């Protein structure tokens, strides 16, 4: 077995014990909140059939799906598909005959051209030949044989082999450039004629090679090859597998179906800081319930989970697709809704002037922008914004419906939470929010922390036809997602991970010699019986080594057992943080560490 | 977007909320025990570099690794590797000339043969031709042209085209079988000769096609193609990624390193009942500690985790590779240790006679078997077995070392657990246990339940050179694994899942109209503030529908809020199991459900 220097695939990560404890803390916190709100966990396989995933994420998304190579002799399927192609080339022997016919025509043309030249110029002139070879008809005839360059090559090769070459003569035209320049002054028409015959004679096998090369290149085209050698892929998100799950298990599901799912997804994105090829998504969705109570509860779930994680200043942004549709409608450009939202989504980054410029580029007029301005620059409290919007959108039924939905959500939140002024300031109606517009049909969510510069740490929305792609129509879904990796970075930066969440083994029993080890064994078991995570250092070693082991593992207590301790039954309990040592009997230690 | 009827890849599974609760119960129980014994969790990426995995699981294992197709324009790499091959075929034009030379020889041979026949038989006989064509020399010459069958084909095609065919004549020999039978009686030697010339004339292009076909087939060979189009694969187990992890992070790890890992693995095995292509492994390993205390603690971990899961009658089998080596050594056939263990491992299934028969087949003598018998049929308590073994293996240093290791493990267990007679009966020294023999070097474990017919539900062992494959030598490792899927089936069959483990939402608040919904909202929030998982049915609906929702979701309580309840503030709490209903104020309900 050869030794491989180990490495990890680009964009993937190991998680150390310290990291796992922190990650589990985030996941457990979020899961606990999901459960409290009645969401039940499901899991789907990492692999889905390729056809389940393709076409669901757009062309760009499709390219980022990790495909799994068929196992076993997967090439037999390629051969099944490739060999008929090669066979078809054999059948195409007939086209070779066609080619030979063309070649015959061509040689007849050459012969007659030469004859014509000779007839018209009994003392033939090299200049005349030049002109004739440059004529359009001549080139057209050469082009009829579509392996032009190969013919040129063999032709020159032939001329070289005749050893009559002197690099000073005829320039047929610029397409013969280099080779043309090496033809001999003394070169005669008959030689040219023979040269072309030689070319034609060779070209059959040449032509076949070219055909097969083209065929091979075509065969090895990604789009053609992939479906033959890959039928499965790693999931790209949790939403499409969830839709697939709902459709497949629709008869076993009690709707409305409230599920949460915390599993990794894979994307063949170019890895960069904060963007990984394998990362976890934490999704909660409810399917089969149009009630806006669900949207309101998602606001509360965000609020509760993030607050529990120790975040203090974050914003839960909310918008509604119908409001965006209403705005586009009022301007009279409903078809440009995507262009409009893409542009105004950039307000934070490029300012009003930038947005205006982009809107113009995307087909809006100055007059449109004047109408849009009050919407883009919407200010004030959520209520004030809603009042302004209602007047702007008074002529759009869709727009007013969107406003109504937002109001209902706000009302639900207010009635659920009667005394939480903080929550009220956390929710923000943001008309520029447009994420995932292509499939959201109702409310849209996005969560940002204001304590650390970081993209969104959560988002979601409602899509009225979640399962339609799998043939189950009119099932509405609404869901949210937590960005666990980003939340991790935020908590790390703000130093918000509780020390209790970082604790593995609570106590290490030292091991200095066999006698101490023997003494320690029943104590070890007693500690564990009291559910105290504990270890006996597995073989005798120097104090320093055992202490640094405890340090490295963040073990907060060490029980030191030496000769004195064995005789007195008073064991030394060392607090690793303070360095303080105490002499206690076993029962006291257990009581203390419980 | 076309509608896809959804399905799952073979051998993969969805897990419903009910299943997830049970699976989490198993995982959480095992993880809690791992943590109590000082094991810390790590996770590794689902994908590993292909070279990290290949060669670690044997040829059969390598085939079962799921490879991931390179993303992007992965075919460009094939083309880079394929096209030079096609080019090399073009260069091989020279071999075509060689072929023509052979063909010329061959036609000369035919001509001279015919001439010879004519000379010797002025009135030539068809029978004579038959004999000559059947002669070894003739066939040898045909074989010199190695596209024998194609030549035969074209030859017959030629004969057909001459329209001189009558399907009643010459059988050249059985290799010409079918075609031979259709040759014409009036067929003359000259025609045969011309036929062969025709064949030779055609064979150049034929030969090229065949060459390219062979080349294409070769190109599309799995072993050659896979490394070009796949550089990553899904992990096959948790052990190799763990070894990779240890080597990569060796400078950050405090040894001995006790880690556990609960993650899915993927194998392209043929799916069947109980065997999946994606399944979870639950592993605990310690690396860098030769102490047999680790082995003893693994026995306790098995005992504790399985007991906590409610299993009562299970056996923790233990063996030691060194004992098996000692036995093979005593018989004088150390090189046959694998054959020996494979055979005696089958004792349960095929009995002593079967084992004896297989041992003979595998190179042992009757005398060897006589020596083996007392070992194979070892009876009695663990101590009695050890006593017998000691006498059998008295001449083998290795064997005695293995016995010593087992004794040390037993002693550790006895000293850790002083009053658990059950545990003592659960441990069984089993000399026929050999799983994973190829890499285990010390103790070997296997756990079986005796309550349900089922394969092993756990196993493991010590391997002295865990990380050597990645260049870090002499780091000993010992580990165990729990078979979570099998444990799931066992618990299900024995009905051992606790009902408490199955609980998601604890209470559903009914929703009959807007007034009731408004009344319910603050109550819902109060319940959640008291950490009671609760739901309000998200829109008003008939009682029956809401009750069956609660039933389907196993929600144990429903709060019914009608007009009367709103007026009296006395809410109806329905116990779904007993059907009992009680009128209580909100605070009482919260107290009750806490």
Short structural description:
The first copy, chain A, contains 25 helices and 16 strands. With 594 residues, chain A is α+β, with helices and mostly antiparallel strands. In chain A, the strands form three sheets. Chain A has an eight-stranded mixed beta sheet with strand order 1-5-6-11-10-9-7-8. Chain A has a five-stranded mixed beta sheet with strand order 13-12-14-15-16. A three-stranded antiparallel beta sheet of chain A has the order 2-4-3.
Explain the overall architecture.
- The structure is a homodimer of 594-residue chains.
- Chain A is α+β, with helices and mostly antiparallel strands.
- Helices cover 52% and strands 14% of the residues of chain A.
- The two termini of chain A are 48 Å apart.
- The relative contact order of chain A is 0.10.
How much helicity do the residues of chain A have? 40-55%
Distance N terminus to C terminus of chain A? 48 Å
Which range does the strand content of chain A fall in? 5-15%
Individual helix count of chain A: 25
How would you classify the helix and strand content of chain A by structural class? alpha+beta
Q: What is the mean pLDDT of chain A?
A: 80
| Largest interface between protein chains, with number of residues from each side | A-B, 129 and 128 residues
Biggest sheet strand line-up of chain A: 1-5-6-11-10-9-7-8
Radius of gyration of chain A: 38 Å
Instruction: List how many beta strands of chain A DSSP finds.
Output: 16
Silhouette of chain A: globular
- Sheet of most strands of chain A: 8 strands, mixed
Low-confidence stretches of chain A: 86-100, 123-219
Tell me the quaternary state: homodimer
């Amino acid at each position: 077995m050869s030794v491989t220097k180990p490495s990890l695939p680009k964009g993937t990560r190991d998680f150390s014990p310290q990291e796992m404890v922190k990650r589990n803390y985030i996941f457990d916190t979020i899961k606990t909140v999901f459960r409290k709100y009645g969401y039940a966990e499901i899991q789907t396989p990492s692999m889905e059939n390729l056809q389940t995933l393709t076409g669901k994420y757009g062309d760009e998304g499709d390219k980022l799906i990790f495909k799994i190579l068929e196992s076993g002799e997967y090439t037999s399927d390629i051969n099944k598909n490739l060999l008929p192609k090669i066979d078809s080339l054999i059948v195409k022997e007939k086209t070779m005959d066609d080619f030979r016919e063309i070649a015959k025509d061509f040689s007849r043309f050459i012969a007659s051209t030469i004859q014509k030249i000779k007839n018209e110029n009994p003392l033939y002139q090299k200049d005349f030949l030049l002109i004739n070879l440059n004529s359009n008809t001549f080139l057209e005839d050469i082009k009829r044989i579509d392996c032009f360059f190969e013919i040129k090559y063999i032709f020159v090769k032939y001329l070289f082999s005749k050893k009559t070459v002197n690099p000073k003569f005829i320039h047929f035209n610029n397409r013969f450039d280099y080779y043309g320049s090496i033809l001999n002054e003394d070169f005669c028409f008959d030689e040219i004629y023979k040269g072309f015959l030689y070319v034609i004679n060779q070209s059959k096998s040449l032509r076949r090679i070219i055909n097969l090369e083209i065929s091979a290149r075509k065969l090895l085209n990604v789009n053609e090859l992939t479906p033959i050698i890959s039928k499965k892929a790693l999931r790209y998100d949790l939403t499409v597998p969830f839709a697939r799950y709902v459709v497949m298990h629709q008869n076993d599901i009690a709707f409305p179906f409230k599920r949460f799912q915390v599993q990794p997804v894979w994307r063949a994105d170019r890895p960069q800081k904060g963007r990984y090829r394998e990362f976890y998504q934490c999704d909660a969705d409810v399917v089969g319930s149009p009630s806006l109570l669900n949207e309101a509860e998602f606001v509360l779930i965000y609020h509760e989970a993030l607050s529990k994680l120790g975040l203090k200043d974050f914003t839960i942004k909310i918008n509604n697709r119908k409001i965006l549709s209403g705005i586009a409608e009022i301007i009279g450009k409903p078809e440009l809704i995507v262009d409009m939202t893409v542009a105004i989504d950039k307000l934070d980054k490029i300012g009003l002037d930038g947005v205006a410029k982009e809107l113009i580029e995307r087909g809006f007029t100055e007059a449109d922008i004047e109408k849009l301005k009050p919407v883009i620059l919407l200010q004030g409290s959520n209520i004030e914004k809603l009042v302004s919007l209602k007047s702007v959108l008074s002529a759009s039924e869709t727009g007013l419906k969107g406003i109504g939905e937002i109001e209902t959500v706000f009302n639900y939140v207010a009635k659920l939470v009667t005394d939480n002024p903080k929550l009220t300031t956390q929710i923000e109606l943001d008309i520029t929010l447009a994420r995932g517009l292509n499939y959201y049909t109702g409310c849209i969510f996005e969560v940002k922390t204001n304590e650390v510069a970081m993209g969104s740490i959560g988002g979601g929305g409602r899509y009225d036809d979640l399962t339609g792609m799998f043939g189950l129509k009119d099932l509405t879904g609404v869901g949210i997602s937590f960005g666990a990796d980003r939340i991790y970075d935020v908590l790390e930066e703000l130093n918000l991970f509780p020390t209790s969440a970082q604790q593995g083994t609570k106590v290490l029993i030292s091991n200095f010699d066999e006698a101490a080890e023997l003494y320690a064994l029943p104590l070890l078991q007693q500690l564990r019986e009291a559910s105290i995570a504990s270890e006996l250092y597995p073989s005798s070693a120097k104090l320093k080594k055992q202490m640094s082991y405890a340090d490295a593992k963040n073990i907060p207590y060490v029980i030191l057992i030496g000769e004195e301790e064995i005789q007195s039954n008073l064991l030394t309990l060392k607090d690793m943080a303070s360095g303080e040592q105490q002499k206690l009997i076993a029962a006291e230690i257990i009581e203390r560490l419980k």
